[in-house]
Amino acid sequence: MLRILQEVQKGSPVEKASDLVRQQYMIDPNQDLNKLTEEELTTKKKLMETSFLKNQVKKGDEGFQYDIQVNFR
């Protein structure tokens, strides 16, 4: 919300500011992270870390299983 307000203060319409901020803070699995600037890459890494920690199942959590093997695609 704060980022949207910052963009609006810069002169962007609310809808455009909202779209811009959504794009900045969205993780696209098909996006080539090698093409990002250092600042953009740092932001994406922080988002991925936050998402990982939020979804992490730890020892003692309900549904915890040790050494689960999952095939991705």
TrEMBL record:
GO terms for biological process: microtubule anchoring at centrosome; vesicle targeting, trans-Golgi to periciliary membrane compartment. GO terms for cellular component: centriole; ciliary basal body; spindle pole. Keywords: Cell projection, Cilium, Cilium biogenesis/degradation, Cytoplasm, Cytoskeleton. It comes from the Eukaryota. It is found in: Cytoplasm, Cytoskeleton, Cilium basal body; Cytoplasm, Cytoskeleton, Microtubule organizing center, Centrosome, Centriole; Cytoplasm, Cytoskeleton, Spindle. Belongs to the CEP19 family. This is Centrosomal protein of 19 kDa. It comes from Armadillidium nasatum. The gene is Cep19.
